Amino acid sequence: MPGLVIYGGKVDPVLILAIETSCDETSASVLRTAAQERGHVPPVRVPLPDSGTDLGTCPSGTCPPSSTPAKPPEVSGKADLGTGPSGTCPPSSTPATAPEVLSNIVLSQDEVHAPYGGVVPELASRQHIKTIAAIVGEALTRAGVALEGIDLYAVTQGPGLIGSLLIGLSFAKGLAYYHKKPLTGIDHLEAHLEACFLENPGIEYPVLGLLVSGGHTALYFMEEPLSYNLLGRTRDDAAGEALDKIAKFLGLGYPGGPVIEKLGRGGDPKAFPFAVPRTKDRSLDFSFSGLKTAALKHIREHGIVKDDARLPDFLASFEDVIARALVDNLRLAADAVLPRSLVLCGGVARNTRLRARFQDFARQAGLDAYVPSPKLCTDNAAMVGALALKKFARCPDAVTDLDLDAYARS
Ligand code: KG4
Ligand code: ZN
User: Fold this and answer.
1) Which ligand is nearest to the CA of 109?
2) Ranges in the chain, pLDDT < 70
3) Residue 256 Cα to ligand 1 middle (Å)
4) Between β-strands 207-212 and 217-222, what pairing exists: parallel, antiparallel or unpaired?
């Protein structure tokens, strides 16, 4: 009989298939919850509602916060997992152990978009349509799991390119509907932050997170697991976007971040004077468009071209001022919220100069600092699955219905 096995309020183990198609990477990952301590309540198999039944959302307030001890759920053989009344959520322990990533397949579309110097949304959607079935199949094969073995599906809902998101979402809905399994919609930015916990489940709260990707640059304060308070975000370009645009202008290729890092290696980061951008009101928001304009001015004034001998110095200077701007805001935020730990995530977190500046600051401030390994910094489905499992462990009622919609902006 299909269903989820609940041991004394803990679901163990769960196999999850996660899908991520928010931008120009098609990714699927299979994860398994780490073996949890089993309670003494005997295992109960909970049948899922029929495919036509609304799985419902966890009504606000019915999921206990992580510190609230709750009674094990009173599940009978016919319990309705989705629409249970308040109090049916199991004890909300956030697992201290990370799930096991059985597979994490990421297919980059870089080659498709490189000739245009940036992501072309329509091409991204078409590419996802062509590859998603194969990527999901590969993730299952590598994990040694059949679709029938999947207990839960997770998919990125947004923010991102709406056409690309809708492809992942529709594909995941189809699987969940056909196999009569729950589907959880996941926020892409929260998933990036979760990537840090996947490799370091014991990170101590409160946590200050710096998220730096191609589409977003933001600071989050996380007082406890699954809480995300936005402290500041970019008012114009994201840091990754600024790197991508300058690389495009110089004809260096796409994505810009890695190519700027490669060509700027060995360059003098002080060779070109860039002022660290600050918002006028000294808020924790970021702004990178002024920096982009300053870079274009240097390029014109010094006549910098693709094969220029000064290119490494210029790129190193540009990369360095972006890293300084990011860490300066992180410092301001840390002074304001007094975190215990710092995390850095998103595609730009792969950057060596930024990682070094981040670690230097953490050392000076006496804070624990974490950065995911490079493959978990850029978009991937493992971070989506990890977050879905954490939410599911907190409250199995939080599975959402098949009316999930994509959103372009947060
Ligand atoms: O998180 P991500 O994969 O996608 C978004 O959610 O946007 O981030 C992609 C961004 C791109 O702007 C890319 O240029 C940047 O991450 N990036 C880097 C590096 N690797 C990727 N930026 C600087 N240095 C890198 N090594
Ligand atoms: Zn991303």
Assistant:
1) 1
2) 1-12, 35-96, 397-401
3) 8
4) antiparallel
Nearest ligand 1 atom to the CA of 240 is 12
Q: How many A from CA of 234 to the centre of ligand 1?
A: 15
Question: Measured between alpha carbons, how far is 149 from 371 in angstroms, rounded to an integer?
Answer: 32
pLDDT digits (tens, 9 = 90+) for 177-222: 999 999 999 999 999 999 999 999 999 999 999 999 999 999 999 9
**CA–CA gap between residue 162 and residue 371 (Å, rounded):** 28
216-224 long-range contacts (CB < 8 A, ≥24 apart) are 216/159, 216/189, 216/346, 216/410, 217/286, 217/288, 217/326, 217/346, 218/189, 218/286, 219/284, 219/329, 219/330, 219/333, 220/193, 221/333, 221/337, 221/339, 222/193, 224/65, 224/66, 224/67
Best mutation site among 216, 241, 243 for ligand 1 pocket (most ligand atoms within 8 Å of CB): 243
Distance from the alpha carbon of residue 6 to the mean position of ligand 2, in angstroms: 33
pLDDT tens for 138-170 read: 999 999 999 999 999 999 999 999 999 999 999
pLDDT at 291: 95
What phi and psi, each to the nearest 5 degrees, are found at residue 88?
-85, -5
Q: What local confidence, expressed as pLDDT, does residue 72 receive?
A: 30
What's the pLDDT at 60? 39
Asked if 170 contacts 386 with a C-beta cutoff of 8 angstroms, the reply is no
Q: How far does residue 21's CA lie from ligand 2's centre (Å)?
A: 10
pLDDT tens for residues 67-107? 333 333 332 222 222 222 233 444 445 556 899 999 999 99
The model's pTM is: 0.86
pLDDT of residue 2: 45
Q: Indicate the SS3 state at residue 4.
A: strand
SS (H, E, C) 62-82: CCCCCCCCCCCCCCCCCCCCC
- Ligand closest to Cα of 378 equals 1
Distance 226 CA to ligand 1 centre (A): 24
Q: What share of the chain is helix, strand, coil (3-state, %, to 5)?
A: 40, 20, 45
For ligand 1, whether the C-beta of 256 sits within 6 Å is yes
Atom 2 (ligand 1): residue with closest C-alpha? 347
Determine which residue's CA is closest to atom 22 belonging to ligand 1: 257
